[in-house]
Amino acid sequence: MNATGVILHTNLGRAPLCNDAVERLVEIAKGYSNLEYDLVKGERGLRYDHVQKILCELSGAEDALVVNNNAAALLLSLNTLAAGKEVIVSRGELVEIGGEFRIPEVMEKSGACLREVGTTNRTRLADYEKAIGPETGLILKVHTSNFRIVGFTEDAVLPSLVALGKTRGIPVMYDLGSGCFAELDCYGLEREPTVTDVLETGVSIITFSGDKLLGGPQAGIILGRRNVLQEIKQNPLNRALRIDKLTLAALEATMMQYFQPDRAISRLRVLKALTEPLKDVDKRVKKLLSLLRKERWEGVIMSVKKGFSMSGGGSLPTQEIPTLLLSLVSKHLSPSNLEERLRYLEIPIITRIADDEVLFDLRTIEEEEFSAIRNGLKQIFSS
Ligand SMILES: *Cc1c(COP(=O)(O)O)cnc(C)c1O
Q1: Which CATH class is domain 274-382?
Q2: Could you say which residues of the chain have pLDDT below 70?
Q3: What residue spans define the domains of the chain?
Q4: How much distance in Å is there from the Cα of 71 to the middle of ligand 1?
Q5: Whether domain 19-267 has CATH 3.40.50.300
Q6: What is the pLDDT of residues 156-215, one digit of tens each?
Q7: Which residues neighbour 123 within 8 Å (Cβ) at sequence distance 6 or greater?
Q8: Which residues lie with the beta carbon below 6 Å from any ligand 1 atom?
Q9: Tens digit of each residue's pLDDT (9 = 90 or more) over 223-242
């Protein structure tokens, strides 16, 4: 159980799937499906036909491809468009995500050559212009998804990079990281351009993850121009990075939610947790508190505190989301001891400690999980 308040917790499996996705996944897993079968023609069809249509309709992209994860999407795109050539990237965007994914290292493995421009804090359009030469294969922009550079900063915005690419005949790619289809700024969150907004700039291709703000299974999604996507699809590496039918089923069912944006916000747990009004979190924390107080554990002090949740998983890195926390203090167990025992339960509960209190963040806990919390604590406090 994720009681940390980090909504997209990379170590806890990132996005939980919505019910429709789980049902679809089970259905597909149990039997045969028309994965690569064209029902109209009665012959071999294409694996990605259905999901591609959904993605294009939702985003306005000309074409789409789905691979194993966003790292794979980058590797495949770079290898296809720029192996043996130079890829221009700002020094302010050479990101590392989750320890293993680093732009310069993926670039090297793709066979493309990194051409860094600008500085850590400032990169101008002119820096890109100067770097373009006969060796240039691609201009790459990378979303600084898990950090912010603040202060004296400047970067070239995507529309001007797209314009530059157009005049010099060089494709422009944007690694969007999270890739969001829902408008979130109306919920008090910082503005994150949607996938559709980004595609409207005329960028050649974009890549993003399926299990970050999208709220689906692990996947890497590539959207953009048909001619570029066709080239990528023909790369033999594509076969090695392809997704299986279960991921495809879960992704399709997740994407279907976005045809009704309100439904997506209420059914996809990641979006619900990000946008849920504080008063609803407040109701939930009070319910949990009164449920646990009925147990009358000796030497256990419980209270409600205010705090902040985080988006996590390489998205909205500086966004603090107001939340309510259930605080536990035990006279017989130290905070770290209690935190450890919660991790050892049959249903492990991952909490955080602050000011010598063990905290349960109700923004990432749902009411269906309350009985597991009560049973777990019962086991700890009665032994
Ligand atoms: C998360 C992220 C990746 C890696 O995506 P995975 O789906 O975890 O492989 C790559 N680039 C950016 C900018 C990211 O935020």
Answers
A1: alpha beta
A2: none
A3: 19-267, 274-382
A4: 6
A5: no
A6: 999 999 999 999 999 999 999 999 999 988 898 988 899 999 999 999 999 999 999 999
A7: 90, 91, 92, 93, 117, 154, 155, 156
A8: 69-71, 95, 97, 101, 142-143, 145, 175, 177-178, 209, 220, 314
A9: 999 999 999 999 999 999 99
